[in-house]
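ugh ok so i messed up the first submission bc i forgot one of the chains. this is the corrected input, ALL of the components this time, i swear. 260 residues overall. if the numbers dont match what u have on ur side tell me asap before i send this to the collaborators (the ones from the other lab, u know who)
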Amino acid sequence: MQYYLLINTSTNTTHIQQINLPKNNKLTNQTSCTNISDLQSLISLLKDNPFIIIQNQNSTQLSKTKASNSKIRSLIKNSQDNLINFIMHYETWCETGITVNFNSPKIQKRCDELSKSDLLIKALGHKTHPTHIIDATAGLGIDSFLLATAEPNAKISLIEQNHLINILLQDGLDHCLTNQNIYNTCSRMKLFKANACDLIKTLPPADIIYLDPMFTNNSFKGAVKKSMQWLHDICPAPSESELNHLFITALKHAKKKGYY
Ligand SMILES: C[S@@+](CC[C@H](N)C(=O)[O-])C[C@H]1O[C@@H](n2cnc3c(N)ncnc32)[C@H](O)[C@@H]1O
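and heres the new structure output, hopefully the right one now
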């Protein structure tokens, strides 16, 4: 007997079902759940490498394209935490289609336009030639990539605590290593999955520790890029005490004390 996970993107419910495929595509032994704790107990039924089937928006027909299933499998791997995180944010992810691609024309254009007046470059300080930069709030890694481009002698340590973002970012970095244009830049970028407050002290001292934590809900106004909107949806903004802790930890471990 094999169990499969069915994500119904139109009703926002998740089912674990025993499915006979490919013989007749009929669904049997359906169990449904609408909250995460039910889902957690159902997930324990899943075997390794669950095959994910997604019901499409407007009909009962199952969508099981090879590409989406392999993307989903690689995103959730076998971990239950991953799976729950993934399910919670799957719909937004589908709608926005966020991926990490440092070779995109948009990011390349941003790299070409980097100048001394860019706020990110100003934050580095004009006279420093850093050899190690920590991006303690890596997100989708765009600022890290720009920092690595601007400082060709620096190694960049990226820290990201959110599981799903971490997976997308690692996926983006892995792809870079097969791309000649950006190989040199990305080979100096190393990603860690952790809370920066815990990890920073275990890393070699950094010339610069870069922080770009999430906006709070109240300060998040106006039109923002869809990737940033998505980040905001899936990452709760840190509390004031978390922000203070991060800031104080960074100040303590950066070689050059000061901030921009
Ligand atoms: C505004 S986003 C950063 C965007 C990023 N600068 C970019 O260019 O894509 C903030 C990110 O920091 C992460 N974050 C916040 N606090 C963190 C911490 N203490 N340790 C690690 N990551 C953290 C959040 O999960 C979120 O992905």
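quick check: Residues 80-96 form the longest helix (17 residues). that seems consistent at least. The chain has two domains: 2-92, 105-253.
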